[in-house]
Amino acid sequence: MQELEDRIAKDGTVKPGNVLKVDAFLNHQCDVALFDHMGAAWAKHFAGKRVDKILTIEASGIGIACLAARHFGNVPVVFAKKAQSINLDGEQYSTTVYSFTKQKEFPVIVSKKYLNAGDHVLLIDDFLANGKAMQGLISLCKDAGAVIEGIGIAVEKGFQDGGKLLRDEGYDVDSLAIVEAMDAQTGEITFRH
Ligand SMILES: O=P(O)(O)OC[C@H]1O[C@H](OP(=O)(O)OP(=O)(O)O)[C@H](O)[C@@H]1O
Ligand SMILES: O=c1[nH]c(=O)c2nc[nH]c2[nH]1
C-alpha cells in the first residue's frame, strides 16, 4: 500500500534491535484516516471471504481493527487481553505470547463468550515480526473451533520470520507494507514489492 509505505518513509525511524518506530501515526498517535484506508485495502484483498468477526490483540491492534471493521459490514471486533482482570469473568481461552516490544511473556486471553465454534474470523494486527502474537491468536481460534479466513497486517518486517512461518502454514497473510531491510545507522528503509 503506497500510502503506508510513503508514511513509513516520511515519519518512521529505525531503532537498534530491529525496531521500526512508527508511533507518530500507527501505534501511539493514531492517524485514523490512514487506518480507514488500511481497512479498505484489507476489504479489497479479502473480498468474497466470510468474516463474522475481527480478532486482534491489545494494545496496538485495537484501533486499526475497529476502523477495518467498518469495511467488513461493522462486524464485532474482539481483542485478546494481555492481563487478567476482574472484568474478565466466565470461561476463557488463554495462551501466552512473548511481547516483542515489552520483551516479556504475557497471557493472552479471550472470553469464551466472544469466540465461538464456527465463527469465521479475520485476524488483524499492526506489526508482524517473529509471529508470536499471531501464533497466540491462532491458538485461541483453534481452541474455540473458529475458522481463520485470513490475516491482515499493517507492517510486516520481512527480514524476521513470522510472515514466512504463517504463509508456510497456509494462511492468507495480507501485509500492507513489507519492510525488506532497515538500517539503524543510516535510517534507510527498503520495501518488498
Ligand atoms: O510478530 P511478533 O514478534 O509477535 O510482533 C508483533 C507484535 O508485537 C507488538 O506487540 P507488543 O506486545 O510488543 O506491543 P503492543 O502492546 O503495543 O501491541 C505488535 O503490536 C504485535 O502484536
Ligand atoms: O512499534 C513497533 N515496532 C516494531 O519494530 C515492532 N515489531 C513488533 N512490534 C513492533 N512494534
TrEMBL record:
<comment type="pathway">
    <text>Purine metabolism; XMP biosynthesis via salvage pathway; XMP from xanthine: step 1/1.</text>
</comment>
<keyword id="KW-0660">Purine salvage</keyword>
<keyword id="KW-0808">Transferase</keyword>
<dbReference type="GO" id="GO:0000310">
    <property type="term" value="F:xanthine phosphoribosyltransferase activity"/>
</dbReference>
<comment type="subunit">
    <text>Homodimer.</text>
</comment>
<keyword id="KW-0963">Cytoplasm</keyword>
<dbReference type="InterPro" id="IPR000836">
    <property type="entry name" value="PRTase_dom"/>
</dbReference>
<dbReference type="InterPro" id="IPR029057">
    <property type="entry name" value="PRTase-like"/>
</dbReference>
<keyword id="KW-0328">Glycosyltransferase</keyword>
<feature type="domain" description="Phosphoribosyltransferase">
    <location>
        <begin position="39"/>
        <end position="155"/>
    </location>
</feature>
<dbReference type="Pfam" id="PF00156">
    <property type="entry name" value="Pribosyltran"/>
</dbReference>
<comment type="function">
    <text>Converts the preformed base xanthine, a product of nucleic acid breakdown, to xanthosine 5'-monophosphate (XMP), so it can be reused for RNA or DNA synthesis.</text>
</comment>
<dbReference type="InterPro" id="IPR050118">
    <property type="entry name" value="Pur/Pyrimidine_PRTase"/>
</dbReference>
<dbReference type="InterPro" id="IPR010079">
    <property type="entry name" value="Xanthine_PRibTrfase"/>
</dbReference>
<feature type="binding site">
    <location>
        <position position="157"/>
    </location>
    <ligand>
        <name>xanthine</name>
    </ligand>
</feature>
<dbReference type="GO" id="GO:0006166">
    <property type="term" value="P:purine ribonucleoside salvage"/>
</dbReference>
<comment type="similarity">
    <text>Belongs to the purine/pyrimidine phosphoribosyltransferase family. Xpt subfamily.</text>
</comment>
<feature type="binding site">
    <location>
        <begin position="129"/>
        <end position="133"/>
    </location>
    <ligand>
        <name>5-phospho-alpha-D-ribose 1-diphosphate</name>
    </ligand>
</feature>
<feature type="binding site">
    <location>
        <position position="20"/>
    </location>
    <ligand>
        <name>xanthine</name>
    </ligand>
</feature>
<dbReference type="GO" id="GO:0005737">
    <property type="term" value="C:cytoplasm"/>
</dbReference>
<protein>
    <recommendedName>
        <fullName>Xanthine phosphoribosyltransferase</fullName>
        <ecNumber>2.4.2.22</ecNumber>
    </recommendedName>
</protein>
<dbReference type="GO" id="GO:0032265">
    <property type="term" value="P:XMP salvage"/>
</dbReference>
<feature type="binding site">
    <location>
        <position position="27"/>
    </location>
    <ligand>
        <name>xanthine</name>
    </ligand>
</feature>
<dbReference type="GO" id="GO:0046110">
    <property type="term" value="P:xanthine metabolic process"/>
</dbReference>
